[in-house]
Amino acid sequence: MVLPACSWTSIVVGIVSVLVVFFAAILNNLENSEPIALSRMTADIKTLLENYRQKNKTCFILGASGETGKLLFKEIVNSQIFSKITLIGRRLAFENEAYENVFQEVVDFEKLDDYAAAFQGHDVGYCCLGTTKAKSGEQGFIRVDHDYVLNSAKLAKAGGCSHFNLESSKGADKTSSFLYLKVKGQVEVEIEELDFDRYTIFRPAVLMVDRQESRPAEWLARKFLSPVSSIFPTALSIPISSLVKAMVINTVMEGDKKVEILENKPIYNLGKLGEN
Question: Long-range contacts: 99-106, Cβ < 8 Å, 24+?
Fold first, then answer.
């Protein structure tokens, strides 16, 4: 029996409707799956920022020439919570701009022990180092996202850093079958073993940012996620501005946890708090 065209149309519409509802249900579950253990959000942020400034602390940022590090640096400068900021990287993060109490240290990550002095005397460290397998190859990716990050953390610990902040990834898991998530998970665990006084791991989802660097896969993901994020802002992605604001706000909210892991939604909520 041959169904009339109108029947086929109804069937297709029905299937599409079911798929839309199913997809929306998945996104809604992802949007609400992460617990929000952020009672500190009610605190007076201005007071916290001012109190932190009085402590005269210093920090370093690894990877300040990258997208996250670059915006984090600007956020930290604007917040004025540190008396001294040191940017550590394989090249200068900027050359034609002048900032007060900002210093740059150019290092060779392949011979990082020779640059131990760059990691001396900082209270807080932010690590935004990272590359991709597509850009650097499998071994290059492991070298940057694991070896460079871990070696930097070791020197930071030896240099007196008490609070280490790591930009990781949603889904990071040392037992993952996906190389990217496995490496991210492995370095998380190995840095924890260094026993910082405070260790904060940020696990953002896909970062919504227009990169200067070409990453076709991320570009396609952002194009797909842009309309989705307007309805479900934390299910699959997060604005990069939310991440860097969250990193600053979390720093001044000195909690009692030695190790804290912030998943995508708590990061987003802290970022919104920073906007206010």
Answer: 102/77
- As a whole number of angstroms, the distance between CA 75 and CA 97 comes to 16
How far apart CA 166 and CA 146 sit, in angstroms, is 12
Rounded to an integer, the average pLDDT of 2-23 is 47
Backbone region of residue 22 per phi and psi (left: phi > 0; alpha: psi in -120 to 50; beta: other values): alpha
Confidence (pLDDT) at 189: 98
pLDDT in tens, 136-160: 999 999 999 999 999 999 999 999 9
Of 217, 219, 196, the C-alpha closest to 209 is: 219
Return the residue matching tokens 């260790």: 199
Q: What is the per-residue pLDDT for 95?
A: 80
The span from the first CA to the last CA of the chain, in angstroms, equals 63
- Above 50 in pLDDT, residue 38? no
Closest CA to 163 of 270, 257, 38, 28: 257
Tokens coding 74: 């600007």
This prediction has a pTM of 0.81
16-25, 43-52, 208-217, range with greatest mean pLDDT: 43-52
Sequence letter at residue 15: I
Angstrom distance (rounded) from CA 142 to CA 238 = 25
The structure tokens listed for 241 are 């501005």
Residues in the chain: 276
* β-sheet bridge partners, residue 201: 166, 261
Q: How far, in Å, CA of 203 to CA of 216, rounded?
A: 22
User: Which one, of 61, 127, 80, 81, lies nearest residue 254 by Cα?
Assistant: 81
Active site (catalytic) residues: 180, 184
> Distance of CA 136 to CAs 102, 143, 151, 183, Å?
30, 9, 19, 14
